[in-house]
Amino acid sequence: MPVGVFSCVHCVKMDYDVQEGTIPRDFIEYDFAEDALDFENQLAEARDVKFTQTLNEQLSIGAHIVCTGTPSEDLPWFTVNIGVGDPEGRGDISVHFNVRLPQQYVVRNTRRHDKWGLEETTAFRLFPFKMDRPFTIEVLVEEKETLWAVDGEHYCSFSHRNPSPLAATWVQVAGVRNATLQIGKTSEYPTLAAPPVEVPLRPSVDAPPESLEINCWRPNVIATLSNGVPEGHQIVIHGRLRPLLHSFAIDLMDYAREWPFPNILMHANVRAHVESQKDRQLVVFNAWLGAWGPERRQRTARLVPGSKCTFKIIRGGDEWSVYADDVLIGELEYRAAPAGVKAIRVRGDFYPDDIYLCPATSSPIREQISS
Q1: Which domains does the chain have, with CATH numbers?
Q2: pTM (2 decimals)?
Q3: Of 65-69, 144-148, 206-210, where does mean pLDDT reach its minimum?
Q4: Which of 64, 219, 275, 343 is deepest in the core (most CB within 10 A)?
């Protein structure tokens, strides 16, 4: 290859014979204004395609809304609204759940006195909606927030604002032609969730999976520990960190469920987005026993986004010890009897490939914890 001439194997060769300062003929003939007008017409049509159900009584804790439908190509977004006032005018919207398929994210917001609040877009899983594929959305009304699940998997939560959905008088779906709504009460959420898997017990940390084990681990998984975590044992979690690492949590809980909220006997939360310019990520330890207790915060994790990683949670004599790739990143003293742990939840930007329980061996500590 001549000096100074480079070829990138990842670059896509264009079909156009484009030279600097010229525009391909196909682009010149393309009417962007017409395309933008088509999109605006689609938005207007989506707003006109709506189904509203008036509430006979106000929503209360445990209220359960189920919405089904199928997104179509000619409607670029759809919305589930919970509101008060005139649903056909400019009534207040307590919760606005706006699915934007072209952009592949969901906006949550509140409208009061004809003014929108701050948008929320973060979620616990990847965008789950696709064109021409039926969906089922479950909405659970809780004391301080609404919980939203898509096809049986928890997707996001939205804290109550003003007006609260507890004062709502109607529920509306817009942008879906075959939408259905069912409103009732539930004692569990999500009702469509698959039964939780059981964390297998292996004889050692290096033991291969048994033939009867089924590899069904997925992001945001909840799994049962029927026999708990015996003293001197550890939970091992192999997985992959998301390339755009934001945060994730590993919870040891007393029940394998989303709601009613279980007690969390050990909560380890890695927050890579906090002062991300630093060479170590922040780790927050806590427990939820009806309410959060005092946090233990330390900058001890040194994780590489996009890489494989192994976490070990060891039940010791007086505390839970958490290791990342055999480096101790923190400990949390027992705030409830450790025998009460019956489930584990992995949520956020750490995607598990394998989870199992085994006897604990001496895990090396290559670095001391520093605050």
Answers
A1: 44-185 (2.60.120.200), 197-359 (2.60.120.200)
A2: 0.82
A3: 206-210
A4: 343
